[in-house]
Amino acid sequence: MKKILLAFSLLFSLNAKELRVGITPYPNAFILENIKDDLKEIGYELKIIEFNDYILPNLALEDGELDLNMFQHEPFMNEFNESKKTHIVKVSEVFLPPMAIYSKKVKNIANVKNNALIYVPNDPTNESRALELLEAANLIKLDENAKFKTVLDISHNPKNLIIKELEAAQVPRVLDECDLAVINTNYALAAKLNPISDSIFIESLNSPYVNIVAAKKGNENSKQAQDFIKALKTPKMKELILKEFKGAIIPAW
């Protein structure tokens, strides 16, 4: 009987369809590792491909090297499509990783000193998002007319803050060198920083920057895309995310 089951398992494995999903490592790798078995049960061999930036996962999706990716929010995707002439679309919302402001020198956002050095991500949507967070913290004022805000759109900077742009993945690495750093949650978690317990100011839960699963246009309603979403968005996975990340990652279902 064991031999029959083993043979069946091997045959099933050989017939399984490879599902290639691109991600940035944390928390996405943790989440996908926990749905591998569920996907295997319905005929898919999940291949998780990790990237350490926000550019290559979309280029790989556009080129057909990936079936899906899970790392970005919709405003980023839309700006990427516009600037890179790609054809990437949303499949489904997954979770909100709230962006937050971190510091090893300042305990209270109200006590930020004049001429403080602040690092923010340098890609258009996340820089805009970071600057909006600094505005929400009453540190700066922004020109409301700008679609994607940059440091050039700061209309009021009463403390003469020095705001520098840096690739998002690198921002946690300069936390010791600056007064404040605005960090995306995936990179914060990878650096052992929890936005709930370690930040001094956090994004509102009403944020539009919910992370999504994306596909190349034309594939968003494919059976494999829909099967992936069904395996991902379950009560079991929701409970696991809430338990593992203690509110730092908020499921969107």
From TrEMBL:
Keywords: Lipoprotein, Membrane, Palmitate, Signal
Pfam families in the cross-refs: Lipoprotein_9
Topology term for the membrane: Lipid-anchor
InterPro entries noted in UniProt: Lipoprotein_NlpA
Superkingdom in the source lineage: Bacteria
Subcellular location: Membrane
Main localization, broad class: membrane
Gene3D superfamilies: Periplasmic binding protein-like II
Family label: Belongs to the NlpA lipoprotein family.
The name this protein goes by in its record: MetQ/NlpA family ABC transporter substrate-binding protein
Origin species: Campylobacter canadensis
